[in-house]
Design brief:
The chain has 13 helices and twelve strands. By secondary structure, the protein is α+β, with helices and mostly antiparallel strands. The protein is globular and about 60 Å long. Residues 267-388 form the Thiolase C-terminal domain. This is Acetyl-CoA C-acetyltransferase. GO terms for molecular function: acetyl-CoA C-acyltransferase activity.
């Protein structure tokens, strides 16, 4: 089987709900990261054979194939096709895996994987609730309701279930959340994100500014402040402070074949070592990264000890904590620059966003293998393992 290589990976800095990116159309966020990939690398962008874009809430400004619209809004040639996909929070990680599979199969040589999500402008769940409110139907069919009666497949409930199953206290979740902010603040101060972030020019009351810093990071966060946030469910352990932040953003990863490297004189930054996707219990839902990681490592012929860094999406603090407990991974290798609790989780854009952060962190620490995984609606999980190129 042919190999698939990562040439570059970029992202916007996260924008808080109603923050600096709130005035930017999501299509234009996508166009900005597409342009950055082309500008940062010396190749003819007409060689891109497809753009695969992850987006979860595909309605309103993110409807009508948002990825194709971003291509048309960008400086890329109009001849490049695009498709938008939804695997919930793993949408752009799946876009990246589809891109890699296209290259590995030998049917494509250069594919751009990406993610776009403006949670400010197209709110989470809006496409599902719109028609329910108008009495025009529910995403749960009669047969699905029969199998899972009275279940709304709530991620909040799934997070509570994981915390209870694995014995995590609210104090543990809040401490993990504090550390996410602290790591994000240190990484920002050290310039660890500089190579992955695409500045976005935005208009503010003070004039035009360049948005290039993740807005969600609270460098002054305290454990006491995090502990004071109201519980989402009485008697539970999940709060807004130990869950991922609503976020606006876009991201992209350029994946190519060995032939494309030669044809365009490109230098690979990493090789895709393994792509895995699994599914399990749709009710507890968020636990599947644990079992997907087991399968990915087994198929890759690796152990968790072979992996130098891990990015496990911080949708809710119990998820990465349960993943650490299950895999026996080293906590100091997990989300070393902070995670979604601090940096934000722009739903469909998070997959390629995490890859940009993982790739840069591997390079900065001279690591070899990196593993990325995230929980997804419906009880699914993607795992991607990369090998940094020397």
């Amino acid at each position: 089987m042919a190999a698939a290589y990562i040439v570059d990976a970029v992202r916007t800095a996260g924008g808080r709900r109603g923050g600096k990116l709130a005035g930017v159309h999501p299509v234009d966020l996508g166009a900005a990261v597409f342009d950055a990939i082309a500008d940062r690398n010396d190749f003819d962008p007409a060689a891109i054979e497809d753009v695969i874009t992850g987006c979860v809430i595909q309605g309103g400004e993110q409807a009508m194939d948002v990825g194709r619209n971003a291509v048309l809004a960008s400086n890329l040639p109009d001849s490049i096709p695009s498709v938008s996909i939804d695997r919930q929070c793993g949408s752009s990680q799946q876009a990246m895996q589809f891109a890699a599979q296209g290259v590995m199969s030998g049917t494509q040589d250069m594919v751009l994987a990406s993610g776009i999500e403006s949670m400010t402008r197209v709110p989470m769940g809006s496409t599902a609730t719109l028609y329910m409110k108008e009495g025009m139907g529910n995403y749960k069919s009669p047969r699905l309701e029969e199998k899972y009666p009275k279940m709304m497949f709530s991620q909040f409930m799934g997070a509570e279930m994981i915390a209870k199953k694995h014995g995590f206290t609210k104090e543990q979740l809040d401490q993990f959340s504090l550390e996410s902010h602290q790591k994000g603040a240190r990484a920002t101060e050290a310039g660890a994100f500089d190579n992955e972030i695409v500045p976005i020019e935005v208009e503010t009351p003070e004039g035009m500014v360049s948005h290039k810093t993740d807005e969600g990071i609270r460098g002054d966060a305290t454990l006491e402040g995090i502990q004071s946030v109201k519980l989402i469910q009485e008697g539970g352990v999940i709060t807004a402070a130990n869950a991922s932040q609503i976020c606006d953003g876009a991201s992209a990863v350029l994946i190519v074949s060995e032939q494309a490297l030669k044809d365009h004189g490109l230098t690979p930054r990493a090789r895709i070592h393994n792509v895995t996707v699994t599914a399990g219990d749709p009710v507890i839902m968020l636990e599947e990264p644990l079992f997907a990681t087991d399968r990915a490592l087994q198929r890759a012929g690796l152990s968790i000890g072979d992996i130098d860094l891990y990015e496990v999406n911080e949708a809710f603090a119990p998820v990465p904590l349960a993943w650490l407990k299950h895999t026996g991974a080293e906590a100091d290798k997990l989300n070393v620059h902070g995670g979604a609790i601090a940096l934000g989780h722009p739903l469909g854009a998070s997959g390629t966003k995490l890859m940009a952060t993982l790739l840069n962190a591997l390079e900065q620490r001279a690591g070899k293998y990196g593993l990325q995984t995230m929980c997804e609606g419906g009880g699914q999980a993607n795992v991607t393992i990369i090998e940094r190129m020397a």
